[in-house]
Design a protein that fits this description.
Blueprint (H helix, E strand, L loop, with lengths): L5 E2 L5 E2 L22 E2 L6 E4 L2 E4 L1 E3 L2 E8 L19 E2 L34 E6 L7 E7 L18 H7 L2 E5 L4 H4 L16 H16 L5 E11 L1 H10 L10 E5 L15 H11 L4 H4 L4 H17 L34 E6 L15 H5 L1 H14 L16 H13 L4 E6 L17 H4 L14 H18 L13 E5 L4 E4 L3 H7 L3 H8 L9
Parallel strand pairs: 5-8, 10-11, 10-12, 12-13, 13-14, 14-15, 15-16
Antiparallel strand pairs: 1-2, 3-6, 4-5, 6-7, 7-9, 9-11, 16-17
Helix pairs in contact: 5-7, 9-13
């Protein structure tokens, strides 16, 4: 059996697992190498089950980028990659999945982005590890946001895994997979070979987790301690895994950030036949086999042309998981709830104060009485003050209900299924203009310990908040408990992360119920200002 070891530039052995018959070296034997970089023909190297991969060492970490974990024909199930003998260069990020429309930068002050080369050959992953040794460190697998149609493993600057791996002494993995019409387009009516095309992206994630199970030990990770975590669409993918039997045993904790929502990310139910036929007609072809060969740009253009009208008619146009034997459906809508097989998996789930509303700068000077009448205004102020006694009442119109309401239901359902579930809400305001309440994605830099990479996070108290959140995440990854009491089906113990971190019970339930009938009106009022929803 081959176990990894390290050499420095002069050929001296560094810390790592021993070669067969040797005693392992201790990390204490390695000299301190702050900001040290090396990259040689043999170091750092990891021997995966498919062949050797070579990354680079920087600032106390071994970093591997763009490792292929699978390959796939369009609309078909992914397959493991073909093995190789020579070291695979793993110093460059791999392709990311093509998206349906040209991306336009915007909102970069709130959510700094990076854009990367797109190609259908996008089944790859990135790894940050303190050492390719026998460390058996917790493994955190990141599933990116962007719904099921957009985004990538490297899209946000805050997705970088370096600080999390170094400061948390853990192994961080980020995954690219198929999206949109490539990953979630139901063609099952066109033959057995397409039976799960509506979940191809989820199938990719399962294959990536199998790769992690089989290979992460040589990167210093513990395959028996894997946390899957994601935000927005990535959080929704965490739920999808809980409802996917093929993923059972591949992860041991789940962390869902702002990923419980219906509407745009609801399951794609019913047959995708009408959409597929419309796309074929727009392309002048007549079979699913021909759809496999159409250049992606043409396929995307045809889909963009025909899907809006079909969506308005309630047809299945894809862009979200398709309930079937592979994926058993969203637990809030499938009529069966969470699968009993996943009940023991600890779950950490939460939202941020304003979510999508936080991207806009509404006119908060309009009195609530003008919007809803005096009686409703008084009721809302009373409930808001009870929920958030230290916040300004002018922000009532910025309280998110789109994510928060289904998340409350989700926590109750999960607790009722017997699973340990922990709740949080990120309510930190930011120093933009006259102050901006927490928007969708604003908690990500704190989770990754990457506030230093996001300028808007440079405010008084940010470092303390970052440490509090980061350590809670690391505790959860190690033990399945973030440091506060789990919720029940009647009592939600919610950690409020903000200027004063503390746990509250059912603090906003009455407020959310009162706001729900006003949701559309509040959304209309709050989104009158400038803003662009980001992922």
């Amino acid at each position: 059996m081959f176990q990894m070891s390290f050499q420095d530039e002069n050929g001296s052995r560094l810390a790592g697992c021993a070669m067969e018959g040797e005693s392992p070296l201790n990390a204490a034997d390695v000299p301190a190498m702050k900001h040290h970089f090396y990259y040689t023909s043999t170091v750092p190297m990891a021997q995966t089950s498919y062949g050797p991969v070579r990354g680079y060492h920087y600032d106390g970490l071994d970093i591997f980028k763009g490792i292929p974990y699978g390959k796939a024909r369009r609309f078909h199930a992914p397959e493991p990659v073909t093995g190789w003998k020579e070291p695979l260069e793993a110093t460059n990020y791999g392709y990311v999945c093509p998206v349906l429309r040209m991306e336009k930068p915007g909102g970069e002050m709130l959510v700094p982005h990076r854009y990367w080369v797109q190609n259908e050959d996008c089944l790859n992953l990135n790894i940050w590890t303190p050492a390719c040794d026998c460390g058996k460190r917790p493994v955190l697998v990141w599933l990116h946001g962007g719904g099921y149609s957009d985004g990538s493993a490297i899209e946000q600057v805050a997705y970088e895994g370096e600080n999390m791996a170094r400061l948390g002494n853990c192994v961080v993995v980020s995954v690219n997979h198929r999206l949109n019409i490539l990953g979630y387009f139901d063609l099952s009516d066109f033959g057995e070979e397409y039976v799960n095309s509506g979940n191809a992206g989820g199938d990719d994630i399962v294959l990536a987790l199998k790769w992690v199970r089989d290979n992460i030990a040589v990167f210093g990770g513990d395959p028996a301690c894997v946390t899957v975590f994601g935000q927005s669409g990535g959080g929704a993918k965490v739920t999808t895994l809980l409802q996917t039997p093929a993923a059972d045993g591949l992860y041991h904790r789940c962390f869902n950030m702002s990923g419980v929502i219906g509407g745009a990310m609801a399951d794609s139910t019913g047959s995708g036949r009408d959409c597929a036929l419309a796309v074929m007609d727009a392309l002048g072809i007549s079979s699913a086999a021909e759809l496999e060969k159409v250049p992606y740009a043409q396929l995307a253009a045809a889909y963009n042309q025909v899907s809006p009208a079909l969506r308005r008619e309630g047809k299945n146009v894809g862009m979200a998981p398709h309930p079937n034997a592979f994926y058993l459906g969203d637990p809030l809508t499938n009529g069966r709830g969470f699968r009993k097989e996943t009940a023991a998996v600890p779950l950490l789930v939460g939202t941020v104060f304003s979510e999508f509303l936080g991207f806009f700068k509404p006119d908060l000077s309009v009195p609530l009485e003008t919007l809803f009448g005096e009686e409703t205004a008084v009721q809302l102020r009373t409930l808001y003050q009870a929920a958030y006694p230290c916040r300004d009442a002018s922000q009532i119109a910025l309280v998110d209900t789109m994510f928060r309401s289904p998340t409350i239901q989700y926590i109750q359902a999960r607790a009722a299924s017997g699973g340990p579930v922990f709740s949080y809400l990120f309510e930190q305001d930011f120093p933009i203009e006259d102050g901006r309440s927490a928007w969708h994605c604003s908690d990500i830099p704190f989770v990754f310990h990457n506030t230093e990479l996001v300028p808007v996070c440079a405010f008084h108290g940010a470092s303390e908040l970052e440490e509090r959140i980061f350590h809670a995440v690391m505790d959860f990854a190690r033990t399945g408990n973030p440091g506060w009491q789990e919720s029940t089906d009647t009592i939600e113990n919610t950690m409020l992360f903000g200027p004063d971190c503390h746990v509250v019970q059912n603090h906003d339930h009455a407020l959310i119920q009162a706001l729900l009938p006003l949701e559309k009106q509040l959304l209309s009022a709050a989104t009158q200002g400038d803003g662009q929803i980001q992922h």
